[in-house]
Write a structure and sequence with these properties.
alpha+beta; Creatine Amidinohydrolase, Chain A, domain 1; Creatine Amidinohydrolase; 2 domains; six-stranded mixed beta sheet; five-stranded antiparallel beta sheet; 10 helices; globular
C-alpha cells in the first residue's frame, strides 16, 4: 500500500530533495550521466524555481537552463534572474550561473564547454529540447556524444507526486477557486469577456499567484455545432480566444483557466449561465455529466488503466462520439505543467490507454462533457489524486447554477 497525503504545510527544501532522489534514480535506470533541461517547467521541477516566460520576444533567448548530474545532490542553474531563487532552496552559490544564450551559436558552444566541466568523461547526456545551435555545438565540442531524449528520464520522476508537491498543488488550486468565485458571483449581462479575465487575474495575483498560465476562457457555446467554427475533426471548437464580446442573458459559458504559484499549475473548468437559471434540459445535461463523472471516479484507483476510465465515460455517453473534446482528452496530469502525463483518451487510441496504468500519487484532471446538438452542452473539470483504493479530491468548487 502507498500512502497518499496532502501536506497542509509543504516544504520546498524537502520537496526538492525528494525530486532529486527521483531524478537520480531515473537517470541511473537509463544510464544517463547528465540531464540538460531547457523547458521552463522541467527547469522548475529540477531546481524548484521558475521564471514566468510571458514576453515571447525573450522567452527563448533568456530562458533558464538546468543541469542535473548523476553524482551531485544539487542541480546547476543558469539563469538571467538569480534574484528569483527562493531562499528556502539553499542552492550552493557555485551551482548558480549567469544566463546562457542557446539561440546563438556562440552561446550554445559556451554552454556546452561549461557542460564538459560539469560532466567528466563520456557519460550519457539527455536533453529535453535541442535547438539547432545546441546540436551544432555538441557536434563540435562533443562529437562522440549522441544525446538522448530527457522525456524518458524526467516524465517517470514527475508523474508521481510527493506529499509536499500535493500540498503546493492544492494551494494553487485553492487560489484559483477563491479568485474565480467573486467573478461568478458578479456575472451579469452586459459584461465583456475580457472584464472577467481582469477581475479573475487581479484576485488571483492578490491571493499569491505568480504567473498566468492560460489566458482565461469564457467561451459562449452555441446550441448547435453547425453554428460553431469549423473543425478538422467535426467536433466542438473549444477553447476560443477571449475577446471583448458582450455577454447576454442566457449565454452558456464554458469556463477554463490556469494560474501558477511556486511552480505549480492549477486547472479549473465549469459551465456557467449568464443572468438566469438552467432550463430543465440543461439541468438534465448536468445530471448526465454528474453520472458520467461518478462512473469514471468509481473505477479510478491504483492499478486501473486509462482504458477503464474511458470505458466508464463512454458507457454513459449519449452518442457515438466520445464524451470529451476530440482534440483533447478525458483526463490529463497536473503539476508543474497545466497538462502533463498521463494523458488519457487521446487520438493515440484504446491500446495506448490500456498501457496507461494508474498509480497512487498520480494527479488527474477529469474533463468529460455532455453535448446535445440543438441544446448545447455541459463541461466541467475535477482534480483528484489517485490512491490505492480510490482517489482524493483536490478541488471543492460548486456547480452553480446547476443543482447537484
Amino acid at each position: 500500500m502507498t500512502a497518499v497525503a496532502v501536506l497542509e504545510e509543504p516544504r520546498l527544501d524537502r520537496m526538492q530533495r525528494d525530486r532529486m532522489t527521483r531524478l537520480h534514480k531515473a537517470m541511473s535506470d537509463r544510464g544517463v550521466g547528465a540531464l540538460v533541461l531547457l523547458g521552463n517547467s522541467n527547469v522548475s521541477y529540477a531546481t524548484g524555481t521558475s521564471w514566468p516566460l510571458a514576453d515571447q520576444g525573450r522567452a527563448n533567448v533568456e530562458r533558464p537552463v538546468a543541469v542535473v548530474t548523476a553524482e551531485d545532490e544539487n542541480p546547476y542553474l543558469f539563469t538571467p534572474l538569480p534574484e528569483l531563487l527562493d531562499p528556502d532552496l539553499d542552492l550552493p552559490e557555485d551551482h548558480v550561473h549567469g544566463p546562457v544564450y542557446l539561440e546563438f551559436d556562440e552561446g550554445a558552444e559556451s554552454f556546452v564547454r561549461a557542460l564538459v566541466e560539469l560532466v567528466p568523461g563520456d557519460r550519457g547526456i539527455a536533453i529535453d529540447e535541442l535547438p539547432g545551435s545546441m546540436r551544432r555545438a555538441l557536434q563540435r565540442v562533443l562529437p562522440a556524444v549522441t544525446p538522448v531524449s530527457a522525456d524518458d528520464v524526467i516524465d517517470p520522476a514527475k508523474i508521481i507526486k510527493t506529499p509536499d508537491e500535493l500540498g503546493f498543488l492544492r494551494r494553487t488550486l485553492e487560489i484559483t477557486e477563491r479568485a474565480i468565485a467573486p467573478v461568478q458571483a458578479a456575472l451579469a449581462p452586459g459584461e465583456h469577456q475580457t472584464e472577467l479575465t481582469a477581475q479573475f487575474l487581479r484576485a488571483a495575483f492578490e491571493l499569491g499567484a505568480d504567473s498566468n498560465i492560460l489566458d482565461s476562457i469564457w467561451q459562449v457555446m452555441p446550441a448547435r455545432l453547425s453554428d460553431a467554427p469549423w473543425t478538422t475533426h467535426g467536433g466542438i471548437a473549444c477553447p476560443l480566444i477571449t475577446t471583448e464580446r458582450i455577454l447576454r442573458e442566457g449565454d452558456v459559458l464554458w469556463v477554463d483557466t490556469s494560474v501558477s504559484c511556486r511552480g505549480f499549475a492549477s486547472d479549473f473548468g465549469r459551465t456557467w449561465i449568464v443572468g438566469t437559471e438552467p432550463t430543465a434540459r440543461q439541468q438534465d445535461q448536468f445530471r448526465t455529466w454528474r453520472e458520467m463523472m461518478d462512473a469514471v471516479l468509481s473505477v479510478t484507483r491504483a492499478g486501473a488503466t486509462g482504458a477503464d476510465l474511458t470505458r466508464a465515460a463512454r458507457a454513459i455517453g449519449r452518442s457515438d462520439r466520445r464524451p470529451w473534446m476530440e482534440h483533447f482528452y478525458l483526463a490529463h496530469g497536473l503539476g508543474v505543467d497545466a497538462a502533463e502525463a498521463p494523458l488519457i483518451g487521446t487520438d493515440l487510441g484504446d491500446s495506448y490507454d490500456e498501457r496507461q496504468v494508474l498509480a497512487a500519487g498520480m494527479v488527474l484532471v477529469l474533463e468529460p462533457l455532455v453535448w446535445d446538438d440543438g441544446a448545447g452542452g455541459y463541461r466541467a473539470e475535477e482534480v483528484i489524486a489517485v490512491t490505492d483504493d480510490g482517489y482524493l479530491s483536490l478541488t471543492d468548487y460548486p456547480y452553480d447554477p446547476y443543482v447537484d
